[in-house]
Amino acid sequence: MKSSKVLWSGLSLLSVLAMASCDRHDDAGTSPGTSGSAGSGNAAGAVSGGSGGSTVGGAAGTAGASNGGGGTSTGGTSPTEGGAGGVNEGGGPGAGGGGEVPAECGDPSRDGVLVFQDITAETTWSCPVYTLTQPIYVHSTSDVRTVLHIEPGVTVRGLKGKEPIKLPGALIVTRTGRLDAVGEPDQPITFTTAEPPADRGPGAWGGLVLLGRAPVNAPANFEDGGLPAGEVYAEALPKSELGVYGSAPDAVGGAGGSGGAAPEEPEPADWDCGTLKYVRVFFAGFKAGSTKELNGITLAGCGTKTSLDYVQVHRSSDDGIEVFGGAPNLSHLVLTGNQDDQFDWDQGFRGKAQFVAIQVYDDADTADSCGIEADGYATPTAPAGLPSAPRIWNLTLKASKVTQRGIRFRDGTQGFVGNAVLTSHAEGVPKGLIDIDLPLTADYLVAGTLAVRNTVLRGVWPTSGQADTQGTVILEQDYFTGSGPGAAGNTAVTTASELWVDPFNIAAPDWVPLAASAAAEGGVAPSDVDGSSFFDTTATYRGAFAPGGLDWTVGWASYP
Fold first, then answer.
1. Which of 328, 388, 437, 544 sees the fewest Cβ atoms within 10 Å?
2. Cα–Cα distance between 289 and 312 in angstroms, integer?
């Protein structure tokens, strides 16, 4: 199918009137304009922009305000190329001194383009701002998958829902769709709320959901859904074919059918939900029930061709990223201030992740929030299929002072964590830097299919331990430190200040360990058991950042 560049899905009367009354540019000539002024702090970047011409972009905008604004790079040569964004919710395309914004793009300082219809044909979003008025599904009505492309610098905003009556603005990429959202270091793609700055916070819009056909270990009729084994209705979404992920064993059918695979994706295990690169997701989440919530990013049934690289999720009301089954490849993740878990996996997740930076804030859920919540089976009391067994290398995790819970391995998960730095505050509620939960999980620990190796550890530990199915109690601190059977290459330190100058700063996170810290030694070359080349084998240090080296979050990640 030939790709069509679709800039808009409809404009409200309010937006049209706003476009008529608000002139975003000083001039509309065809020669390069003058430098744009600083941004006003909104998510779309500079309101005044510059005096860029209609065919040739203006010069760069001046540096933006702390919550957005014009950028510092050179001006663009088209309406969608402006200066780069500011240090927080920076400007999108045209936010600096770019050329004139087309009329169909609306007013980027207000709604931009209002999106109120599902996307069923290949579409490109290239306007500065898109506003999701409700859950928007990307799906196909034929045997060809629908692809949504989002260009660098675009800001996608969602309206806030009203629990439990009105669902919020959210983007749901179904099994018959795919998302291609590839930003640039100086023009990240931003998903955020449409709420005014004073009302922004966790749960201020829905979030991003990617659904695929990769295997999950759910039994038939999981949670009374009435679906065959391997298929599940996504959490917090209405029960319909559009909200199903996974694939039933031996199912057949095209892109629009139940189970099976689209012609261009013959293998469910490799299922490509999309590519996200230099993408930021702020203030997402929605509670649709006591245990059913939308996350910042949900990956459900996404296979090995799904890729997230340089992706941040900040201040979600539930999890930062939650992965249900499948085996997506994840790297350079920044997960900060999300109110439940920062990274959550379940239902047989068997993917890979490297360079993962996690910082839990103290307003997280005081009952169960974790840096990582690791679940193995959809039904741990009657396990079926393969358990979760991801491989995680080069992890930095700073736990909340309130719970101090770093990683909670539970519900029969397997997995491997290597070259990590796990730390928490010196005081707080001791729920455990590493917490083993459920006898089956302890069995996997003893068998060696669950392991934490070559890791720096600083925190408090659970005091009661966990018994395996033979009744032998495993005390986590004894197991993972000192001469314990699971302590290979692990190093315990006394304080987090041995690793960072300002370890728990949340406004300007101190991610890079001191050059002479314990993170600089004791690591090994990352490896995989399947012979793949996904992992960067030169990252022989411990943690997500080379001690004394560069901070790879600079220039695109922010903490509004």
1. 437
2. 26
Instruction: Write the pLDDT tens digit of every residue in 353-398.
Output: 999 999 999 888 767 789 999 999 999 988 989 999 999 999 999 9
Model pLDDT for residues 259-317, shown as the tens digit of each residue: 334 445 447 999 999 999 999 999 999 987 666 789 999 999 999 999 999 999 999 99
Contacts of 260 (CB under 8 A, 6+ apart): 213, 247, 251, 252, 253, 254
Residue 63 pLDDT level (bands cut at 50, 70, 90):
very low
Q: What φ, ψ does residue 518 adopt, rounded to 5°?
A: -65, -20
Q: Cα separations (Å) of 290 from 135, 154, 241, 381, 555?
A: 20, 34, 23, 21, 38
The half-sphere exposure of 15 on its side-chain side, counting CA atoms within 13 A, is 21
Q: Which residues pair with 335 in a beta bridge?
A: 313, 358
Q: Are 409 and 415 in contact (CB under 8 A)?
A: yes
Tell me how far apart the alpha carbons of residues 338 and 321 are, in angstroms, rounded to a whole number: 9
Rounded to whole angstroms, how far apart are CA atoms 454 and 70? 43
Residue pointed to by tokens 């009354």: 21
* More confident call, 90 vs 343: 343
3-state DSSP assignment of residue 2: coil
**What is the helix (H) or strand (E) element at residue 282, kind and residue range?**
strand 274-282
- Spatial separation of the C-alpha atoms in residues 198 and 526, rounded to whole Å: 44
